[in-house]
Amino acid sequence: MDPQGALRYLAGRGLLTGPADHRRVERVLVDDGWTPCGAGDWAVALRSPDGTLAARISPFDPTGPYSAAIYARAARTRQVPALVVHRRLTGGGDLQVLEWLAPVAADEATVFQEALAEPRPDLAELAAVVDDVHAQARRELPWCGPLDRNPANVMRTVDGRLVVLDLLYADGPDLYSTATSDPDRLVALIPQDERRFMTEIPLATSGPWDPAAREALRAAVAAADARRAPVPAADEP
Length: 237
Fold this sequence. Notes:
three-stranded antiparallel beta sheet; alpha+beta
């Protein structure tokens, strides 16, 4: 599926405009033959029926717009994946549709990440974009982590190029620890509409998430939201 064809398809399925949360996006794509091809702590991935695209779907991902900004701004380097579409989903979720990528051997990926960190001259433009967007994310997000130099974030395109993705991430351990120990701080720093589904991230790498702990966190955050809600004015006599 070429990018324009993908945009027409997504628009025709109502996934580019109007309200849509992660559940609806995943349901529509799966019903249309997209197949699961991966899962991490923050998102799941589906592969298009023709194998040319991957959809990354997250219930809650504060850094999603910043990752998309890196892909857009560094597109001409051809060292990031081609981004077909990015949109924020209802409740703080994130959808990215990217070109299909294949895994890379760990040693080759490590060399690429080290070269990007230097940066090597042929990666200097990409490194400058990454550093600029990351600095912006650190200014604007209360729980933005350092750059993720994981070799698994280096992959290969169909035409053989090495690209890097998912360099930015929210500091999940700190964020969720704060949500548990000081939910009032969490609700003060992240608007409710941007974290509605924060207890629905997959945690495929770090999990599983104990159901009782998940429910306790959900209840604690809801109580903090209630405490933060404005008190209705008393009726005048």
